[in-house]
Design goal:
This protein is α+β, with helices and mostly antiparallel strands and 703 residues long. It has 17 helices and 26 strands. A seven-stranded antiparallel beta sheet has the order 2-6-7-8-15-11-12, with no helix packed on it. A six-stranded mixed beta sheet has the order 1-4-5-9-14-13, with no helix packed on it. α4 runs parallel beside α8, α8 runs antiparallel to α9 and α12 runs parallel beside α14. The structure holds zinc ion (ZN).
Length: 703
């Protein structure tokens, strides 16, 4: 049934998941096809070392934590391979699945027999934990006496809370990745048996159960199984689960104070309205991004325009009113939720790492549907800022929330004011481990005889364009330097078009909405030369189009201006009123205490400050810092106000009630000259707990 076959070659296996959908008579799919990461070798100074650190440090560290915390034993206990009781949260299986997915991606480009053998051992335990009819959910199988609500004797009885279908989704993603990486069916067979059980259990047909998952994830994962197998039942089930939301749901009501009371409210799980009627992003942020990614998949694979319009409405709300400058989302610690429109507190913002990764998934899919570069602008923003901040430079420490401000005291990161090696709820580390090795797959895409260059990351790619193969090479020091050289080497000469993304940040549009704007228009212009001759920018949906008869060795030189730019938020974002932030290229910068005399929250940025970019290979893994003459106030002149503290109190066991969110400067506060140093936001929190801020007081504002 699996098209790619038992001993799939690498290329055919990758094609099966990335390029081809043969399952419907109409042959519908995304009009744009990503070039799979297995066909792209990243060889730059920025992402390549991070991907290698992920392989050598992060993945082994997470597996070790999964062992130490009983996450892997839970499978062995459920499978009768060892004695004991289920330990931990009811979604802990997914930490193992996500890391298998990351390890598999890593194996695709970096064979590692030892890692492959390790995966075989873990997969044998997972297979043992599967019940004879395909059911796989270790909390129930290992400890039928109910570990937590939703894990009791009856299957599927409390879908809003049990995470049974969420866990299954991560199993499918891991299984697809493992099969494509190794050609082994060991995990895929487990996944397909489980998916067949679920497809036989749920659906609109008489006699089947009605329901939908409380935590979206299985929808986009079923689409992956559909792509791999061509079994339309999986696509139908994905659509069914999305369509079921919002048509009446009876939620168990937990008493106030009970930690499961967060599930009393249908908006938390985006089940308050049918997905077509949802025009505001509410509830749990990660769930919304996974739901939207599944909606985009269904829109592409069924050709259903209404699905596209629904997902586009949600996108406009998120990117127009609910997104932080780093691309992160989710304003409230309380229930990991979106806030109201323009509610974007900095100190107390949540911005879960998983939600940033979900934004990358979602925006990439929106690009594949539309060909619009604005979606890649958001994807790039969140990759370089919101996602990357979630993992330390050494690959061993993590952020769960990623706020844009720290006072050095508020323990925003599950009980810490800095990075942590692990969390009780450990979704974020595993998510990072699977995202990083897939980054090369976001660089290029094709449509007919068009090659899209979406991201500027040095390395080489081999791109199938109809019956022609085109080798493409990028050389650059991006994101530190805006000079990019692309060399084209088609196996046969001929006409095709290169669409090179011209980032919004070079076009006075940091985001494709009015949520953020540069204070001044940029002076420098983008330039493109082909074989040394300047070509005019022929723009199409945010891409510079160069259509010509290409021949071996043709060279494109791109210069993207890398000025430091001041950004302001929409006036309705009260938390950013009177503040300004600084960006350079795709990077959001911040002031952190070690570079600024021990403080950062007292800095005032005068109008017209000139920034000097300085390469610092010795600092924070090698960064370009920004220096400028600023002002600083006495610390006592900075006070806090606002009510976010009350709104966010007691979000979960590990969080503490935060201080008031907003910061102001006393009117008439004395200011002294301050030599300002800014570092890339992603690199903060490597030198001890202390003050950090993306937003700096803007001089001349009445506070
Ligand atoms: Zn997470």
């Amino acid at each position: 049934m699996v098209r790619a076959g038992k001993a799939a070659t690498f290329a055919t296996a990758v094609m099966a998941i990335s390029c081809v959908s043969l399952a419907t008579a109409e042959n519908k799919d995304y009009p744009i096809t990503p070039v799979p990461f297995t066909a792209v070798k990243v060889a730059d100074g920025f992402w390549a070392p991070r991907i290698e650190t992920n392989r050598t440090i992060t993945i082994p560290a997470i597996f070790r934590k999964c062992e130490e915390t009983g996450r892997i034993d839970n499978f062995a206990i459920a499978g009768g391979l060892m004695k004991g009781e289920y330990k931990g949260e009811r979604y802990n299986d997914t930490d193992v699945y996500k890391t298998i997915e990351g390890a598999s991606y890593s194996l695709m480009v970096h064979p590692d027999p030892e890692l492959e053998r390790y995966l075989d051992g873990v997969i044998a335990k997972i297979a043992a934990a599967q019940e004879p009819d395909g059911y796989l959910y270790t909390p129930r199988t290992a400890s039928p006496g109910q570990v937590q609500p939703g894990t009791g004797a009856e299957r599927w009885a409390e879908l809003a809370i049990s995470h049974e279908l969420y866990n299954a989704g991560h199993l499918y993603e891991a299984a697809a990745a493992h099969f494509l990486a190794t050609g082994k069916r060991s995990l895929l067979d487990v996944a397909l048996k489980n998916a067949d059980l679920i497809a036989g259990t749920f659906g609109p047909e008489p006699g089947k159960r009605q329901g939908f998952p409380g935590h979206q994830e299985i929808e986009l994962a079923l689409v992956k199984l559909y792509r791999l197998t061509g079994n339309a039942a999986y696509l139908d089930l994905a659509r069914y689960f999305l369509d079921q939301r919002g048509h009446g749901v009876k939620l168990v009501q937990y008493p106030p104070g009970n930690r499961f009371a967060i599930y009393n409210d249908a908006t938390q799980i985006q089940a308050h309205k049918p997905v077509f009627e949802q025009d505001e992003a509410v509830g749990h942020a990660v769930r919304l991004t996974y739901m939207a990614s599944g909606m985009a998949d269904v829109a592409a694979l069924t050709g259903d325009r209404a699905y596209f319009e629904a997902v586009r409405k949600l996108w406009e709300n998120v990117v127009g009113k609910k997104m932080y400058l780093t691309g992160g989302i989710g304003s409230r610690h309380d229930r990991e939720r979106f806030g109201d429109d323009y509610e974007l507190p900095n100190l107390t913002g949540y911005l879960e790492t998983c939600a940033s990764i979900g934004m990358a998934f979602w925006n990439h899919r929106m690009f594949l549907l539309t060909g619009e570069a604005g979606y890649i602008d958001i994807m790039e923003r969140v990759m370089y800022n919101g996602v990357l901040s979630g993992v330390s430079l050494d690959g061993a420490l993590f952020f769960y929330p990623n706020p844009l401000e720290s006072d050095g005291r508020y323990r925003f990161n599950k009980g810490r004011a800095g990075r942590a090696p692990w969390f009780g709820v450990a979704c974020c580390p595993g998510n990072v481990s699977r995202f990083l090795p897939s980054v090369p797959g976001y660089i290029y895409a094709t449509r007919g005889d068009v090659v899209y260059v979406n991201l500027f990351i040095a390395g080489e790619g081999r791109i199938g364009l109809g019956r022609r193969a085109v080798n493409i090479k990028q050389e650059s020091r991006f994101p530190w330097d805006g000079k990019v050289r692309i060399t084209i080497d088609p196996e046969r000469g001929g006409r095709f078009a290169l669409h090179i993304r011209i980032p919004g940040w070079t076009q006075n549009r940091p985001v494709p909405t009015d949520l953020y704007a540069f204070e001044e228009p940029g002076e420098a212009k983008v330039s493109i030369q082909v074989n040394g001759k300047v070509v005019p920018l022929d723009m199409d949906k945010g891409f510079a189009r160069i259509s010509r008869v290409w021949k071996r060795g043709d060279r494109i030189d791109i210069v993207l201006p890398m000025e430091a730019r001041r950004v302001a938020a929409h006036p309705s974002v009260k938390d950013d009123e009177g503040f300004v932030a600084v960006e350079r290229g795709p990077l959001v910068y911040c002031a952190e205490w070690p570079d600024n005399g021990g403080r950062a929250l007292n800095i005032v940025l005068p109008a017209g400050t000139v920034f000097r970019a300085e390469d610092r290979p010795d600092l924070l893994g090698g960064v370009t810092i920004l220096k400028g003459e600023a002002l600083a106030a006495d610390a006592t002149a900075v006070t806090r106000f606002g009510e976010a503290g009350a709104k966010d109190a007691a979000a979960d066991d590990e969080d503490e009630a935060p201080p008031a969110a907003r910061r102001r400067l006393a009117p008439g506060a004395a200011l002294r000259p301050h030599p300002l140093v800014l570092i890339p936001y992603y690199a903060w929190a490597h030198r001890g707990d202390g003050e950090m801020s993306v937003w700096l007081f803007k001089s001349g504002t009445q506070y």
